[in-house]
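Continuing the series of single-chain predictions for the mutant panel. This is the parent chain; the variants come on the following pages.
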Amino acid sequence: MNDSLNDGPKAGKKTSSGAVQVQSLTRALLLLKRISASSNGLNLTELAGELALAPSTAHRLLNSMRQLDFVDFDEQSGLWTVGVTAFSVGSAYLKKRDFVAEARSHMKRLVAETGETSNLAILDGHNHVFVGQVECTEVMRMVVQIGSRGTLHAAGVGKALLSGLDDAEVTHIINHTGLASLTQNTITTPAVFMDELRKIRLQGFAVDDEEQVSGLRCIAANIYDENSEVIAAVSISGPSVRVSSDRLDHYSAAVMRAASAITLAIGGSRPVRRASA
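Parent structure:
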């Protein structure tokens, strides 16, 4: 009976201690999250006030994180900033991400929304390479083999990927590949093509307006990494009778939403809109 009586208080004390530890951990993570959102750092008063903590509590938690280099403190300015350990831990996520896998669910939603096949492509040298596809259910649809390569200047994904490069890089590529005419709509003049890329950068999407295959239209938008650099392009492709020019706003908005969602899912960020590279 004595053993039973003794077990109660011990268990209760352990539970209470665990709850305090969880609360401290939560508060510490909230402090770290708030510091990371500040570009210049925050002082103790600001941090304690924003999270409704006693200054002494906030200071204790910050010092604990400082010992492990999760946060840093500038003695002169009195500001707390993110430490090198927090950066290392955050960067570990980038090592495990698989943007192809992350993209698939968003591509499925894009297909459901538009009714057209969605493709995922990356830039590889002087070509684009398809690394993912979600097919629509239409009898007449675009089908590509994963791993197949395509011509950059005439494809929606190709033009989108090129728009992520600066003009000098693009010029180097098209000087090597040329701008071969594949249909009567293919852009074959370098100056006109560079203007096309500037337009893509401004509007946020690229259109293959039957430039690669007559009767096929493609709309693509870029996916960005944590450095706001292009790592892939997602698109929809279908017969021009279905992907009609009068519905371009609808389709392009859907593709850009998918690209933004994938970018967010992999921890990337879109660059500030620019008129030229």
